[in-house]
Structure formats: C-alpha cells, structure tokens
Amino acid sequence: MDAIAKAEKVGLDLIMMSPNAKPPVCKIMDYGKYKYDQAKKANEAKKKQHVIQVKEVKVRASTDQHDLEVKLRNVRKFLEEGNKVKVSLRFRGREMAYTGQGSEQLKHIADAVKELGKPEKMPNMEGRQMIMIINPLKK
Question: What is the pTM of this model?
Fold first, then answer.
C-alpha cells in the first residue's frame, strides 16, 4: 500500500515486474514510456536480423554447358547474398532412364560452388524431380 501511495504522489505507475517472486517485485515508472521503449527495442532488433530465403534454380539432365554456367552464376550470386539455394532437376518422360546423368549434373553444381556453400541435402529423387539444397557458408 505504501508503494501505491508513493507512485500516485510522484504521478507515475506502479508496475509489477515479477509477480511470482517472494515478495513480488514492483517498480515505479511511467508505463507508457516503458511500452514505447520496448517497442523501439523490438523494432531495432527486427531491422538487424537477416531473413534467409530459399532461392530455386531449375536445370534439366540435358542442360548444355553454357546454360549450366548461367545457372551456376545465379547460384553463386544467391549464396553470396546469404540465401539457401534449392537446385531442382526435373525428368520428363523417357528421361527417367537417365537419373544417373542428372545426379552427375547436380554433383557438378555442388563441386562448382563448394567455396561459397555446402550441400545440406544431397541429390535425392522426389517423384520425377531430383532435389539438392545448398547452404551458404558462414562468413
């Protein structure tokens, strides 16, 4: 009761900080200003955090060397930005007989970008698609 009287006398609020403690811990402060400061801190923390996105690059088992280099350039760019890269290779029709060729294609991609990222998930089949996920390396 003394604390409530002191808070009213000063014109501030009495705020219970930890009600489960014995005895409960209270503070005399301006509650509006406290909430404002908490919102500012949360906003600053949100600005500083980096959201990792998953970027996707699609290739085919029969993708030619030059086209593959263009795709690799995109993979490198995404990894440098700090994003994960999902490399998916789709097989159509009779291409399902050449899954080994597709797996070699994905391993070639993983070797080409090993200085920027390492595969989180090695190539594996999911239906008619072979998927590999590459994580960026920590700086």
Answer: 0.63
Residues 6+ apart with CB under 8 A from 25: 16, 17, 18
**Can the peptide bond before residue 23 be classed as cis, meaning omega within 30 degrees of 0?**
yes
Instruction: Decide: 87 and 106 in contact? Cβ < 8 Å.
Output: yes
- Examine the pLDDT at 39 and tell me if it is beyond 90: yes
Q: Report which DSSP code applies to 22.
A: S
Q: How far apart are CA 12 and CA 107, in angstroms?
A: 66
> How far lies 13's CA from each of 33, 70, 86, 104, in Å?
11, 63, 53, 68
Q: Which residues contact 115 (CB under 8 A, 6 or more apart)?
A: 137
User: Beta partners for 90?
Assistant: 60, 129
Examine the pLDDT at 40 and tell me if it is beyond 70.
yes
Smallest CA-to-CA distance from 62 within 104, 107, 123, 124 is with: 104
Following CA atoms 62, 93, 120, 77 in sequence, which dihedral angle do they give, to the nearest 10 degrees?
A: 40
